[in-house]
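Fold it.
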Amino acid sequence: MNEVTKNTQTFLETLQLAAGQDVKEWNVEILERAFGWAVYCQEVHRKLKDKPQFVEKLNRSLVIIRSLPNAALSLSEFCFDHLAKSQRLLLKSLLQNPHLSRELYQRALIEYSKLESHKDGEEPKWNAFLEDATHCAQIKAARSSLIDMLKIVDKTIEQNKPQTKGDSMHRINTEIDASILRQYICHHLSNSPTPQRTRQHLEEKLHSIASEQSEGLSIIGNILGLPSEDTTKASIYHQCDEFVFQWIITNKDKYTKNVKLL
């Protein structure tokens, strides 16, 4: 079971890499290895799905894995049931990754054609691909629509108050970034099996944001002004606020020149 847990963790790490810039360095061999891990995980699901004691044990391990430092927020809900669709999860990550090369994109399409069974001589079915492609397109369209709406708002503000040009888009973008960062911090603070190591990781993450992004400290500071979206999470939001506040107090002298809280 330890080997299964270790290999499942390898797949989750691969899935995370498939969604990022690292795929720029991928070649056919690395892609095939990634598909191999996906197939392995689906086989694990097939063999263990009717064995509750093993499912429960693996789920407990997954809670720990997805809470480790550097674990992506997108995998925060990953559980045993998701293993059944490991290949499709990998393909969907690759499909929406703009850094994937043309050659590997074509390889991914071939793998999509294999997801649904069809008889020899029949055209492959593309239902899974069309569904995932549609979902990706909807996300991009929604983002494009939001940007267009923000431009209209900014134009209206500019006509009435020229000195506030761009303020609405800037403010909304900062609050969105702050909200995403808060989710990331809350996720790790609430689920970490190694609190001290996790806090160190989060401190390093805040240092990275503050020093590498022009509005980094503004994003961090805006966490303290965000509303509690879910009253059932009031405790963890409070814990997050305390962590961020303490980080700001400790490092204010280092980053004072960049302070611009909205």
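The two ends are 50 Å apart (CA to CA).
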